[in-house]
Structures are given as C-alpha cells and as structure tokens.
Amino acid sequence: MLLKNCRFIVTQNEKREILENRDILIEDKILEIGNNISKKDEVIDCSNKIVIPGLINCHTHIPMNLFRGVSDDKNLQRWLKEEIWPREAKLNEEMVYYGSLLAMGEMLLTGTTCFNDMYFFTENIAKAAKKAKMRCFLGCAMFDFFDSDKTDAEIEKEEKEINKILSLKNEKIKPSVTPHSSETCSDELLVKSSKLAEKYNLPIHIHLSETEKEVNECIKQRGKRPLSLFEDLGLLKNRFVGAHGIYLNEAEIEILNKKKGFIAYNPCSNAKLASGICSAKELKYLCIGTDSVASNNNLNLFEEMKFGVLLQRIKYNVDAMNAERIFDSATINGARALGIEKVVGSIESGKEADLVLIDKDNIFLNPNYNIISNLIYSFNGVVSDVLIGGEFVVRNRKILSFELEKILKKVNSFNFS
Amino acid sequence: MLLKNCRFIVTQNEKREILENRDILIEDKILEIGNNISKKDEVIDCSNKIVIPGLINCHTHIPMNLFRGVSDDKNLQRWLKEEIWPREAKLNEEMVYYGSLLAMGEMLLTGTTCFNDMYFFTENIAKAAKKAKMRCFLGCAMFDFFDSDKTDAEIEKEEKEINKILSLKNEKIKPSVTPHSSETCSDELLVKSSKLAEKYNLPIHIHLSETEKEVNECIKQRGKRPLSLFEDLGLLKNRFVGAHGIYLNEAEIEILNKKKGFIAYNPCSNAKLASGICSAKELKYLCIGTDSVASNNNLNLFEEMKFGVLLQRIKYNVDAMNAERIFDSATINGARALGIEKVVGSIESGKEADLVLIDKDNIFLNPNYNIISNLIYSFNGVVSDVLIGGEFVVRNRKILSFELEKILKKVNSFNFS
Question: Which of A322, B61, B110, B267 is the S-S candidate for B308 at Cβ 3.0 to 4.6 Å?
C-alpha cells in the first residue's frame, strides 16, 4: 500500500525529523519513505494528512472500561476497597471480553495502537485484542498477600498464562510478568517474578509508589522503599515498567536512571484520585499510561499527554516538561519501555507500519506554527485513520476490526451500578 | 421547533434534574418541556441525544487563536513581553475578524455558546460574533500604565466602544468594562472603570492575582493586595469577574464570597504558564474560562472542566471539587457571573434556547452510570449540534453560520511565526 504525498510525517526518528510531502510505502512493515514512489496497487491520498507513529499506552487495566463513572470521589485506598474490588468480584469472561473491546475502540479512535495491560482473565483480553487487531503486552496480576501458601500458585498461574499467549503465535500479542505491587506481593513472589521474566525474556510491569502509604508500609515492614526492594530482588535486571512512581526519592530516581528502569506516568488518574504528581521531570526513562477508565475516565492519550506536561509545570516550573518530551514518552520511549523499539515507536523503514493519520484541517491544528505543540496542547484526539502492521483498523473515524455498536449495546446490558 | 423525545436533558435547574425521554418546544426561547408535546412544523428526533445547556466561557482573548503554538515554554511575564506583545503589535482588523471566527468555530464545535472576552479591535470581534451568531460580552482592555495623561483617553475609548456595541441592538452581543489589571491600571482608571460599569450597568472583567509578582508589586506600590484594592475602588459594587484568582489570601476570598464576586478559573492556561492553581475550592462564586489559545492551547471547555477538577484535587484533596460543581461553573454559574442567569445557563421554560446536543452513543459516554461524570471526565467535547437562541449554528458537527474552510485558509495566510 502506498500512502501518497503525506503532508507531514512526524517520524519520531533519532533526528526528530518532520518530513513534508513524502510517500510511505508499506506492507506489514514500512518499506520505504521517499519522494514520488511509484506503485500500482492500493494508493491512499494523504496530501491532507499528518502521519504520526501509533501511540503506546504503557499502563492500563482495560476491562475496567466497564466501570466508567461508577465512583469518582474517593481516594485510591477507599475507592479500591469500597468501589472497585466488589465490582471486580462480579466480572466474568464475557464481560471482560466486551469491556476490553470497548477500551480498544476508545484507544483506536484516539490513535493508540499498542498497550501494556495488567488485569485478570488475560485469555479473554487476548481474544479481544486479536479481534481488534491491536498490539499489546498482557499480564495477569499476581498477589499472594504475604501468604507463602499462595506464592507458587500465583507464579504457576502466570507461567500458564504466558504459555497460552505464546501459543497464540500472534506477533502482536505478547505476555508480560505482572506482580501487583510491594503492598500485595511477598519477597518470594517478587523474586520468582523476576526469574520468570528472565526465563521468558519478558518485561516486568508493576505498580510502584502510587501513594505515600504504600511507601511508608514498605519501609515499616521491609526496612526499605519499594524501588530499592525491587532492585534488591532482581526486578530491574529485565525490562522494567513501574506504574505511577509518585513517591520516589532521589536515590530511587538514580537507580531508575542508572538501570534504565521506566516509569509509566499516569497524570490524570493520579490527579483524579488525589495521589500526587510523578517526578517525571527527573526521570530519564519515561513512558506514559492512562491507568484504567475507572480512575481517568478515558483512554485518550492526547489528553493524557497535555495534562502530563501541565502537571509537571505545576510541580516544578515552566521548564519541567515540554511537548516533545511527552510525545516521546507516548511513542519511541513507550516502545523502549516494552523492548519493542526495533518494531514500533517511530516511522522508519523496517519498522511495523503502526501509523495514525490525522486531518491537517482539524480546527484544533490551525494555524500550524508547530505541529507537535498543536498535537499535544490543542488536538482532541479525533484521528481519521489507524493502521496496525500495515492494515487499516480505523478508516474515516470508523473502526473496521469490530462492530462498535454491538459492543456499546453489550456493555450497557451489564449492571455495575 | 420541537426537539422530540430527548433521551436525557441535563437541565442544570435548581433541582439539578436530569429528565429522560422528554420533548423541548422552542422558538428563540424554550417554550415548554414535557411529554408528548404535539407540534406540526419542524420536529427533530432527539431520542439518541443528550441535551445540555450551552456552555459559557468566562475568560477569553479570542483573536489570539491566531497565535496557537507560537510559544509554549515561557512563564507569563517573559511570554507576554517577548512573544505575545510583539505579535499583537502586528494585528489588524482583518486578522482579528478571522482569528475571532476561528475561535468561535472551535467554541461552537465543543458546545460553547457564550463567552466573555477582553481584547482590542472590539468592533471586529462583534462583527465576527454576529456572523457566528454567538452570545458574548466584549470589552476593550484598558491600561494607562500609571500615566495620568492616558487615563481619560482609555475611559473615553471604552465608553465609545460600549456605545458602538449597544448601537448594534443585538441582544446576544453585550459590552463589558475591562480594565486590564492592577499591574497596568492606575487607581483613577480603576475608579472610573467602576463608574462606567455603574453608569451602563455592565459587568467588570479584569485580571486578578495571576502571579505572585503581581500581588507583591501591588502591595509594594499601593500598600494592599489587588482584590482589596479593587474593593476599595468600588469594582465589586457591580457584577465582577476576576480572571485567574490564583494568589488570593483568606481575607480576599472572604471579600469575594461576601460581595458575590466571581472568579473565572483558568486551569489549563495557569498550569501551562506555571502560574499556579486557583483556590477554586474556597470560592462560592466560581465560573470557568480557557484564557487565550496562545496559552491553553484550545477553547474546549470539556477539557478545561476535567483539568479544573483534577488540579483542585492536586492542590487540596479528593473532596476539593467534583464533576457537578465544575459543570455548574460552566453553565448556570457562568450565567450568574455575567448577570444573564435569567436568560441562559440552564434548560428551563422562558430561557433562551441555547442548547447543545451530544450523541448518546459516543464511545466516551458508555457505559452510562453517571452522565455528568461521563461528560466531565471522559467526553472529548465533540458535540453533534448547537442551537443559540433557538437557531441551529452547528448541525451534525458542521458549522452552519460561517464557512470554516475559508477561515482556515485565511488564518494560515497570516504569518506570526
């Protein structure tokens, strides 16, 4: 397929090139970017489009789209215990499947092509991802609540889930290892998680320092802060994505920056639950996530990126964060966090064609003095087309890979009020 | 016209009623809200629509849409002096007219029907508002920079502008009195502004305590803080809208709450310029604004409302602000701030039919456990239809009152890089 005469291509390559009026030749991969490429089969006129790499959401619990708006006014601990866990107890496989498709619809319609998820019923999320044709990492959250009788069962279950996902032989759907947090996992479970990640060469995805309470309890129980604990137990040997990272001290930030540990910054969810602001400015390895819809309440990374910059400026000053850095966190750095920077995250020959097309004439993108600024600070996320692995999954604002109307009907038939 | 079988009507009336499956009969005003109203002429099926009152943006500088993305990384003082004022010096009437229409397009497409503006070339903004068929208050910013030779000329110019606007005899376009701020206006100019507002019974619209520097200079020069100064000089006798209100102390908050002085909260702009967070939680009389696109960088009040809640939770705690209160600030309380609460701000018989229709099946509004929550925290602002004074100005996401394509071409032909 030839994307002909793209008005702007925001490559996110090493040189941060923004190319004008170029063609992109693709199959599943990007074959060539150039001038006047001639090709006989399918040609798409992109003279009125801005092309960006598909966005990467590095921290999600996607079936929780089912819980949109059920509870908005409690802080994390009360919200989880009083509002979320009782509802999660009612979930079944069908609900998870349809809730996941709702979430994927929302991601696709706002330019996200890849996500990093931690939840339950992983097989059903994988089934939905296959249907939606999305790229993802899926992990089944592990916790033993410091009960050593449960530790091995959690690890065994995770390994089983990993093998199920590997057996799909779907290049786009990958497993990850997801111990829940320092609050819910014993040392033994964390060590075994680390070994599991090594054995299969998978990323670790874990909650980290989302509240002060979490940090204080870790110090009280274990004599060290969560990130030091994770380092000591081997979790930073592999690819590491810590979600939130709000209460990190200088020493912990140094560990992350030295060990190439990524933090997935979740500005909206952290503010909505009044948890605090991540020290994103200080972090060398930064990706971004929405967290779940239940605490956000959407999966629109464009909104997340804007608020991500704004919160850093509130925490520090106007120089703390800019549009370029936050856009990196949702593209090439998201790919690096997951270890797939050779596959996606920028528009370069040889990478998968995960591409998002945006109308140049969108009112929020005009006048156009600075494309990145307009995308981050002004655009509302309504993209026109999305390709994953060279295949259109959204065309003219319509999802092609599944019937959205049917999903809306289904999710409204469940009752989590 | 009959809006038939509206699925939900979020009235914003005293009882905060959300009506289901009702009809709204309108001419320029809302004539009746009820069941099975029969009418023979134009009937609009709204069985798949959520109807809300048109939103009110209480602090704008709308021609500055021309400066979207020209400078994003400086704090207020440097940004104004180095980036904005030199560009404003190049503005002419044509630019202001087209920049205003661009801004109005953006407001209409995101459900804003009324705005409160402070800028220059007021006549040209009025011309654009007439074209766009929007409701607004317009003021020409006054400043004498403490030069007593300039004071009377500023007041005379303002009075002339007021009379020009009044002579339009357009019920939707009203004047306001807009001394710029304590930083730029002498006591005499502020006193005379106050008298001008009294003479014509108009709202005062002024910048207030946007930075610490502004407050400290006021104390140094005048021995009191800006709000106390304004009170002493009579500015709070009339309707009063202070924009920003970030650095207010307890005594000032008490004055505002006692005198019914409104603060227009500008969360995005205040965060982007790293100015700080308004004490919105403490304020009894709260409306909301976007400030200009140059520091936001859009006029989407849905985004503003979400960040408005989130920032309060960062400043205080999870109880500081909720979806209902911020929605009030953009509807009925915006109307109260401008003194037009008997005209607009809620959906009630006798008020003008400023109505916004939103697709119930929008992915961000499903599942639907809490409409207000979904509108504030999840929705991206893409409304389907907008009526002002009973007339469609947006229909099926397309602006009817002017040609957007032409405006985009025009604004891209100007050069403010």
Answer: B267
Facing B381 at nearest CB: one of A110, A380, A408: A380
Kindly provide the ipTM of the predicted complex, given to two decimals.
0.97
Please give the C-alpha separations between residue B75 and each of A267, B241, B280, in angstroms, as whole numbers. Answer: 21, 23, 21
* A127 and A193 within one domain: yes
Counts for chain B of helices (H) and strands (E), in that order: 15, 17
pLDDT mean over B96-103: 98
Q: How many domains does chain A have?
A: 2
* A92 located within any domain: yes
Inspect the interface and report whether the beta carbons of A378 and B296 lie closer than 8 Å: yes
pLDDT digits (tens, 9 = 90+) for B347-357: 999 999 999 99
Q: Are residues B59 and B39 in the same domain?
A: no
Which one of B296, B314, B338 terminates a domain?
Answer: B338
Whether the CB of B271 is below 8 Å from some CB of chain A: the reply is yes
- Burial of A284 from C-beta contacts in 10 A (0-12 / 13-18 / 19+): middle
Nearest CB partner across the interface for B322, out of A72, A277, A319: A72
How many angstroms separate the CA atoms of B306 and B247, rounded? 22
Q: Is residue B365 domain-shared with residue B246, that is, in the same domain?
A: no
The verdict on a CB contact (< 8 Å) between B296 and A73 is: no
The CA distance from B187 to B233, in Å, is 7
Residue B238 has pLDDT above 90, yes or no: no
Same domain, B16 and B39: yes
pTM over 0.90: yes
Please check whether residues B115 and B41 belong to one and the same domain.
no
Residue range(s) defining the domain that contains residue A353: 2-53+346-399
Domain stops at, among B319, B338, B357: B338
* CATH number of residue A388's parent domain: 2.30.40.10
Q: Which residues of A touch B72 (CB under 8 A)?
A: 322-323, 370, 373, 377
For strands B355-359 and B49-53, give the pairing.
Answer: antiparallel
CB–CB contact A364 B417 (8 Å): no
Q: Are residues B15 and B144 in the same domain?
A: no
B261 in a domain, yes or no? yes
List, for residues B41-79, the tens digit of each pLDDT value. Answer: 899 999 999 999 999 999 999 999 999 999 999 999 999
Are A122 and A190 found together in one domain? yes
Residue B39 has pLDDT above 90, yes or no: no
Q: How far is B61 from chain A (nearest CA, A)?
A: 16
User: Which amino acid belongs to residue A189?
Assistant: L
The shortest CB-CB distance from A377 to any of B66, B297, B369 is to B297
Count CA within 13 A, CB hemisphere, residue B384. Answer: 15
3-class secondary structure, B222:
helix
| B411 lies in some domain | no
- Residue B93 belongs to a domain with what CATH number? 3.20.20.140
Shared domain for A93 and A213, answered yes or no, is yes
Percent above pLDDT 90 for chain B: 98
Tell me if B416 and A313 make a contact (CB, 8 A cut-off).
no
pLDDT digits (tens, 9 = 90+) for A213-257: 999 999 999 999 999 999 999 999 989 999 999 999 999 999 999
- CA pair distance B242, B191, nearest whole angstrom: 16
CA distances from B174 to A377, B78, B102, B159, B326 (A): 31, 33, 20, 13, 25
Optimal mutation site among A71, A300, A312, A313, interface B, most CBs of chain B within 10 A: A313
